[in-house]
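Re: [ENG-882] Designed sequences occasionally contain unexpected residues at chain ends

Forwarding the minimal case from QA. Structure tokens:
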């Protein structure tokens, strides 16, 4: 690789490597470095010399050095973990110098948190261009931190205790956020949460909510995308009753223990795409969904065949050619109908 010293991008493809691999980083004009597939046991200090970098993505389990602030052109920083094992009960913070990356737009750091810049007594520590923050825990969602990210639109939070869920969402008010992702590995967010009213996209995973708590989401009149993964809600029956998701366009149900979904298309008048994955207990979708005028596609992955058969019967009954159906089982090629 030394023969192309003026390279602008270095992309490392393939599965993640379990062992360290020597990577040449002598490209002084490099702007994009995507090395997520390579595991670093020590932070590659050559990286901080690449001052033209705009995009940096690596896999590293340790602490980020303060010299990261040398990458003053950086717009995207992604730090993935090789091991998702929690290292201690104490938060592990990014260096305070991370606040000097004033061009940063996207920050994704699994297992790391943003330090509170107010402790540094420096008013210049503001990242006005940051739009997306994900992978952090509740320790990053404080008044001091959010005040220094005035244009933040999307936030992904890892909840590790019920106390975190209460403490965190007391700060998420107003209309600042349009996209919220919550990941809870141990079903600890069963404590009711007051969601920001102006959210347009929500992704929940591992929260363990009761289906009755779906009313809290139904109050979000601007909600357009709802993704429920890995026991985000628990229980055999989801009954929408008189609830109406008036603006919802995309609904994902994945790895849920849901058996019966009692609803009607009138409760989802704007739904355009329905995706159901690995819901092995689900018996059928609501009996009139395929007759919806707004619904364009239903995707079914690894569910009971009765679900697919029921959808096909609905399409024939309503003669809905517009509503496509994609079915896939593990080991099979995807079938579009």
């Amino acid at each position: 690789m030394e023969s192309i010293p003026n390279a602008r991008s270095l992309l490392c493809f393939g599965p993640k490597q379990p062992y360290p691999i020597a990577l040449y980083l002598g490209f002084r004009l490099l702007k994009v470095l995507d090395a997520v597939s390579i595991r670093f046991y020590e932070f590659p200090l050559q990286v901080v010399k690449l001052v033209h970098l705009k995009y940096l993505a690596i896999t590293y389990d340790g602490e980020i050095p303060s010299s990261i602030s040398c990458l003053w052109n950086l717009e995207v920083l992604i730090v993935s973990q090789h091991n998702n094992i929690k290292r201690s009960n104490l938060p592990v913070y990014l260096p305070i110098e991370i606040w000097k990356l004033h061009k940063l737009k996207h920050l994704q750091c699994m297992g790391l948190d943003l330090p509170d810049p107010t402790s540094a007594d420096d008013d210049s520590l503001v990242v006005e261009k940051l739009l997306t923050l994900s992978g952090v825990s509740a320790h990053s969602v404080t008044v001091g931190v959010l005040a220094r990210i005035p244009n933040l639109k999307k936030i992904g939070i890892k909840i590790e205790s019920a106390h975190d869920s209460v403490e965190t969402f007391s700060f998420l008010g107003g209309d600042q956020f349009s996209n919220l992702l919550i990941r809870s590995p141990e079903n600890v967010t069963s404590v009711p949460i007051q969601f920001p009213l102006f959210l347009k996209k929500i992704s929940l995973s591992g929260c363990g909510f009761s289906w009755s708590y779906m009313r809290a989401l139904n109050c979000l009149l601007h909600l357009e995308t709802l993704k429920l993964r890995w026991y985000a809600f628990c229980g055999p029956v989801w009954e929408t009753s008189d609830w109406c998701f008036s603006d919802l366009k995309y609904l994902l149900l994945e790895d849920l223990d849901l058996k019966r979904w009692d609803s009607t298309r009138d409760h989802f008048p704007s739904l355009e795409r329905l995706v159901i994955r690995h819901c092995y207990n689900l018996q059928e979708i609501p009996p009139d969904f395929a007759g919806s005028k707004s619904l364009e596609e239903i995707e079914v992955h690894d569910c009971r065949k009765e679900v697919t058969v029921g959808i096909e019967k609905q399409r024939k009954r309503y003669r809905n050619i517009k509503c496509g159906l994609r079915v896939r089982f593990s080991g099979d090629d995807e079938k579009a109908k």
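QA comment: On inspection the terminal residues look reasonable. The helical segments are 143-147, 162-169, 215-218, 305-318. Proposing we downgrade this to a documentation issue.
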